[in-house]
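Mods, move this if it's the wrong board.
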Amino acid sequence: MTIGVDIDEVLFPLLPAVIEFHNERYGTSFKIEDFHHYRWWDVFGISREEAVREYHDFWREGRAEQIHPIEGAVEAIGVLSEKESVVAVSLRQNEYENRTRDVLRKYFGSNISDVYLCNHFSSSGERKNKADVCADIGVRLLIDDFLEIARDCSDRGIRFLLFGDYEWNQSKSLPTGVERAKNWREVLEKINDTRHK
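Not the wrong board. Structure tokens:
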């Protein structure tokens, strides 16, 4: 089985670092609890274009490479890669592919066998639907924090673990084939449960 894993907020806590960057720049005091959705520009009270520019400044200043993995991620990916092929599938931009591969290699070694970027919020290149990418490369299970992507994957018959207990991914009900996993320990438990059924 090929397992897909998102990068931001699943392997690495990107948003807290972006919030810190924004607060430093503008003297604001936003917290991750303020993000009831993942549209940063709405929460920050700026335009989408300004938010995209700020995100690229964040990368240009090397802040993305300073983020350490989420607790339990390195160990869990190591366990999963012993029996499955694990690939990273992210909305990140193509222009950051090499840097993304470098940081994944730094922390996860060869346990993540490939990286697929969907190029959202980029000024150039084709934007891809993550569920389509997963279907094309044979991902049978995706671990991701985005509820909208969970719905897309459910429509394509791709099993989905909705990662994290984040404000932006709360829902009273989940689509067919979607389960919640609050942390990497729960991810491993749910995958092990499936293997033994």
